[in-house]
Batch of 4 targets.
Target 1
Amino acid sequence: MQIAMNTVVTITYELRDSDGNILEASKDPVSYLHGGYDNIFPRVEEELHGKSVGDSIELTLEPADAFGDYDEELVQIEPASAFPTQELKVGMQFEGEDESGDVVLYTITNIEDGKVIVDGNHPWAGERVLFKASVTAVRAAGNEEVEHGHVHGAGGHHH
């Protein structure tokens, strides 16, 4: 079966930075609903369209096609007293809102003199990345999966 609209695609993948370092790799195969449901990078989905089990892809994603451009406005300095815990550490993450009310995950990048620097950018924002994937399974999606816009069961979402 070929990958097409409303198929459940299972892949193994590897994501590398521009220096060839592995940023992330699937330990187990992952599944997504194919067909513009925003469950995977759109350029990756385009590249996988029409492929079958055993096929592989490799493509370079510019920041706009992956984790976005780095946005300086998502870096903020806050007083340590603004945080719900006194034991702040670099790398801790907190949810916040941007100007439009969207939830943003902020990561503490520095703590100094009672001030905390938080960054709402994805850690790989602004990075060009290499995405490699191998197709391990393809099946027709169930009606409920199409209605919900995501995969159910093993490798997908559970209700």
Target 2
Amino acid sequence: MELHRETDADTWEVEALLDTCFAPGRTALSSYRLRDDVPPARDLCLVARGRAGEVAGSIRFWPVRVGTHDAMLLGPIAIHPTRQGEGLGAYLIQSGLDRASAAGVKRILLVGDAPYYGRFGFRRLAGVTMPPPTNPDRVLGIWDWDGVTGDVTKAAWPGTCPYDTSTPDHLP
């Protein structure tokens, strides 16, 4: 398995993987409204390729605001159906969290299953509201969420990210 930063050259293959894993209607989800016209934090986004060069998995991060605070929205994370159950999802999540930590990201949120993401340290975020129709029990976060509440909205910075998402050379 080869893990590398997602580049523009990976985009069509990653989009095809996302369609395979989530169906083409995935872009109708409310979390996609937070991503519209906002570039991902490209240095945090990762692609895993198998031995034949195929995209086996991907993880993306997007800058958002929660109330008056900056945060990163993790997702989507996708593993090709033929590669599920191999631990690749956990590897991508942990690698992404390591990169985000090295870049100084203070808080990350996602919409997902607490039992799965809890093993990475994610916990339910009371007082943080994703756009509807999101189940509040599935809004999870990690790291510095003390005193952070409010609506999750699109990042207010066009084309840039408030974090230096460049990462040390020892990270993929």
Target 3
Amino acid sequence: MSPHTRFIPLGALALGVLALVGACGEPPQPLPTSPPYATSSDAPISLGPSQIPGLPVATAPTLAATPTFAGGTYPTYAAPTATTTPPTTISPTPTPSHAPRCTGAPTGAQILTLIKGKPGIPNTTLQVASGPYCSGDWSFTTVQKAGADADQLEPLMVVATGKNTTLKLIAAGSEVCVDQVQTTAPPGIRVLACGF
């Protein structure tokens, strides 16, 4: 024997082999397999209720051709025939015609005197551009700077009530469609002041 050779006792070798074998556990088992798939050439298997042992055989109820309930057969219902009516068209309310020119008071001069020196009215010589137009006790007039061209300046509008000594200013300026005009003025004046 060579000086470098070592002896391993047989008992130790046997224990090592057993330890290795024991550490692995049980050997692998083959994987479970499913039954083979049916192909188109295979005939399907059908089991009826009478072919399964222990299963009671039940029969399906037969349905009557006409459904019935406790009170007899179901009543028939005739659906009403639909009638089409053309949609109702609502014609727009026609815009009222504006008030005609005043035949008496107030005059253009009276309107100019009424607005002179009021807030928002230019402190210059004014002239009547159109009107006054009257409806009942109401009047509507447009005024502008004297000598001014209609294209150079937006005219001022004047809405008043009363005549002569009872003449009262309701609104004057570039916008005179105020609440009182909308709710109280006659349609002929309101259409001039508000456009409706």
Target 4
Amino acid sequence: MSGRREEKKQLTRQAILDAGMRLFSVKGYKNTSITDLAVEAGIGKGTIYSYFTTKQEIFLAFCREQLYLINQDIVLSASCEDHVVDQMMAVFTGTFHFIKQDREFGRLMLRESFFPTEHNLEQSQKIENLYIDMLVPILQRGQERGELRSELDLILVIGHFYGLFLITISAWFTERLASGDDFLETLKTMFYQTMYGLAPA
């Protein structure tokens, strides 16, 4: 019985996420209410609050699942022997393509990920942990091959690279970088410039 109950919970949760993405795409994020989501998902409004506290939390949960799937594909297709920068670029390129699909969604995801409200803190931390789990092994392999100094704090290194990603994505949002190709070329250049400071003497 517990297995069936858990399966039903997962199906209901997924129905809420699917309803969110359909309505956000058609009506826009701001114009979609929790009531709208409940009707679209075919459940009661109260049921939604059993799974999510806010509309932002629904959105972030969807983003986390999509980013996880994107990153899993990257892990399976990437070569562990590639240079650290190339592997890091693969991860952040996947994120960029996800954000690029819809600027409103991308802007909201970045805002709620880095400046979360108290209600969205857990979902934001899950997105953060997703990147940590993905990037730490890449950096560890880079240390083993001598591409990074062995004494570096890898969490701080991740923060450094992610900071470069945010600067570059901001330039794309403000159209200082006119295209996706400009974004990727700029980000890769900044990553390689950073590596000179992180490599062994």
